Every structure is written in C-alpha cells, then in structure tokens.
Amino acid sequence: MPDSDVTVEHVGLNPTRTGVLDALRTMAANIEVVQTGRAMGAPVGRVARALGQPPCGQLELPASWALRSIDEIPALGRCLRARQRAIRIL
C-alpha cells in the first residue's frame, strides 16, 4: 500500500545475522532498527521501514556481509531480479 509503514517487533538482532539490514540500507532503504531487549542472550528489537520509493540500484555485497545474510541472499536476489537489478558479492 503506498505511503504505508511496516514495523516488525521482536526481531533477532544478533550481529552475525543482520547483514541483510546492511544490504537494504546500501540500497537506500529507509530502515530503522531499535534494540529493545535481549532474548536467550541475544539482542532483539524493532525493525521499521517507511514505505514509498522502493530501494533501488545494484547491490554490491561485501563477502563479510554475505556470511551475515546467507539465508536472505536468495530473497534479495529475487527482489533485485524483479526490478532488473543484480547482486554482486565482492
């Protein structure tokens, strides 16, 4: 829906698993991450995205981020493919 916001609560924010957030920011996504606590020793929080103009551009993903977003790379690739963009792991 145009001009909508999406907020997801209780998101795991373990730094070894947040590469996808860095990748989305690199693509100019308007993402806000707020740590709100801990669960089972790992940080958790809220991730919000103001919708509107979708992220754009080719994604150049540093290899160190690839390890932190390995499960999300197929989803990122599919999104980029739909917009005729590419993902490149450096």
Describe the 3D structure.
With 90 residues, this protein is α+β, with helices and mostly antiparallel strands. It has helices spanning 19-26, 63-68, 73-82, and strands spanning 5-12, 31-39, 42-50, 59-61, 87-89. 27% of the residues lie in helices and 36% in strands.
Brief write-up:
The chain has 90 residues and is an alpha+beta fold. It has helices at residues 19-26, 63-68, 73-82, and strands at residues 5-12, 31-39, 42-50, 59-61, 87-89.
Molecular shape: flat
* Number of separate domains: 1
Strand order of the largest sheet: 1-3-2
The major beta sheet can be summarized as: 3 strands, antiparallel
Top-tier CATH class: Alpha Beta
Unreliable stretches (pLDDT < 50, length at least 5) are none
**CATH topology heading:** UDP-n-acetylglucosamine1-carboxyvinyl-transferase, Chain
Distance between the termini: 34 Å
CATH superfamily: Enolpyruvate transferase domain
Radius of gyration: 14 Å
Q: How many extended strands? A: 5
DSSP summary: helix tally: 3
CATH architecture annotation:
Alpha-beta prism
